[in-house]
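Self-study notes.
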Amino acid sequence: MTGDSVMQFGNFNIGMVKSQGPVDQRAAHEQMIDAVLAIRAHVPEPDRAVIDDSLSILDTDGPVDRRRFRQALGAIGGIAALLGATGAPVIESIGNVMEAFGLS
């Protein structure tokens, strides 16, 4: 997992650039899979089943229908959102994947 890199100089600085995730599709995809696997143990069994079904769509080397890919990202993102701060790395990595694959 990567952290934020912040450099601040002078006065009246507002905001932080949050677009420093991987731009490489493979790197973004692998980072997301790792983040999802890290939260899997923290969710109830029904949510684990959704994660497993979604990972079967997302973690493949073959061609994937963009609609199904996006739906799987949404399902995992919804579960991650319910976890609050614990799920934040998953949500960030999903955003990186969506950007890398041109889904946003």
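Second protein, same conventions, sequence then structure:
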Amino acid sequence: MLLLTEAARLGGARQVCERLAELAACCDGAFAGARADLVAAMAARDAEALLAVAERLHAIGAHLSAAEAAADAA
């Protein structure tokens, strides 16, 4: 999941979005789903969704990812 998220950050969100969602569905915990939602928001270029994911990431302690999601929304 980490590598797919990194690929998304480097501009490949649309290419990895579906696979990341599949993997997240197989995982327990909030972080996997938040990553999948982050990449989906990146692929859609949806600022509101990015801010919502940033809040979720912050709430689970993923502060760097939350900050990057918020910055992407700007």
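Instructor comment on the second fold: The chain is about 85% helix and 0% strand.
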